[in-house]
Design goal:
3-stranded antiparallel sheet, globular, Arc Repressor Mutant, subunit A, 55% helix, alpha+beta, homodimer, 119 residues, DNA-binding
Chain lengths: 119, 119
Amino acid sequence: MYLCTMYSSELIKGTLKTIILNLLKEQGRMYGYEITQRVKELTNSKIQITEGALYPTLHSLEKNGELSTEKEYIGKRVRKYYTLTKQGHNTSKERVNEFADFVNTMRFLLNIETKMNNV
Amino acid sequence: MYLCTMYSSELIKGTLKTIILNLLKEQGRMYGYEITQRVKELTNSKIQITEGALYPTLHSLEKNGELSTEKEYIGKRVRKYYTLTKQGHNTSKERVNEFADFVNTMRFLLNIETKMNNV
DNA sequence: AATAAATACATAAGTATTTTATGTATAATG
DNA sequence: CATTATACATAAAATACTTATGTATTTATT
C-alpha cells in the first residue's frame, strides 16, 4: 500500500463534465456520491471529485438537458439518480472524442511516449 | 486545406503553463508572440493561445522564478525573450510527467484506445 | 502614398470552474 | 454514544481563462 499524490487541481479542470458524462454512459444511472466514489476507485485516488464541484456541475448538466433525474428513498435518506438523456448520450460521445483528440495533440506537442504503466 | 475546429476552451485550461515550460525546454529561449505562433503551427491551429492568457502567465512564471527574461530591440520594436531558470527546468519536467500520468489515468477512465492518427 | 494586416507588448473587466467552507440529516460502526 | 460514512446542497473565495481595449512598429496590399 502506497500513498497516491493527486494531480494539481489545474489539470483536472475542464474534464469534470467529460468524466461524469462518460461514467453515466457506461454505468447507466448513478447518484452523485456514487460518482465521486467510483472515480476515486477507478483512478486509485488520483482524481477525487469534491462535492462542491460535483453538485453544481450535475445541476448545470441537468438544466442543460443532458441529464434527467429521479429521487429514490433509501430508508429516510434521499438519493438523486442521474441518467443520460438522448442529448446527453450525444454530448458524452462528443466530449470523449474531443478529449481523445486533445490528448493526441498534447502528446505530440509535449513529445510524450505512449506509456503503458497505467494507474 | 481544411478548417480545424479548436478545442472547447475548457479543455486547454490548466495545460498552458505545461505547454510553455515544455516549449522553452525544447527551444531554448523564445518570446511571447513566438510561443503563440509555434503552438498554433505545431497543433495545426487546434490550440491557439490568446495574448490575454499568455502574457499574464509568462509574468506569473517569471515572478515565480521559473523564467528569466532579457529584452531585445528589433529596430524600434521591443521583444522580451524568456529562458528557463534551473528551477524552471525541474518544474518543466515535473509538469510534463504529471500530465503524461494524468493522460494515462484519463485514458483508462474514459476507455480511450490509443489512436495514432495524430494532428 | 495610404490603408490594412501582422508583429509585439500589456492590462482590465467579465466569465466559468473549481476549492474551501459551511450546513443539514440519516445510517452504520466501534 | 460518539465518530465515521453516506448523501444532499449552497455560498464565498480563488483561479484561470476569454474578450475587449490600448499602444506602437513593421510589413504587405491596393
